[in-house]
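Handoff note, outgoing to incoming analyst
You'll be picking up this chain. Sequence as last confirmed:
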Amino acid sequence: MNYLATEFEGVWIIEPKIFKDERGYFMEFFKKAEFEKQIGFVSFIQENESQSAKNVLRGLHYQKGDFSQAKLVRVIQGEVLDVVVDLRKSSRTFGRSLQVKLSGENKRQLYVPKGFAHGFAVLSEKAILAYKVDAPYAPQSEVTIAYNDKNLAIDWPIEKEHVILSEKDQKGIAFAAAPYFD
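Most recent structure output, in case you need it:
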């Protein structure tokens, strides 16, 4: 695998080696020893999968306190614009966002450490995402930041009138009101 550091400390893009032939392909998408050598120890406890239709925008979500989560995100089918926002007050990239296209075709993965909000917009007719997490879902600890917060100025690739949001995402709070990480 190829591990690409980003300008956001701790956030990595991972490109697996894909072996193709006339039958199809094979790839390793997670190898614990290699992952820990490049990124460090992370104990993933759960893997989730979600399917979303075109123009669905999920996020920006995170969990605070003891339930904060690191994530390893990949797209099995379709294409998304994956976005993370740095919530670490001491970071030089605090309040900035990183955008990465993930797809079933490019097979890229995004490692998101604790201290980031995460979201994505579906660019294809549908997308299936899988992601590993290192802490359980804790609704009492969850925070949703408004995807269209003016202070974040994220350039989402979906026209505002076409964005499909959950009720929770429609009620996202301002970035300025969100709890940050020290």
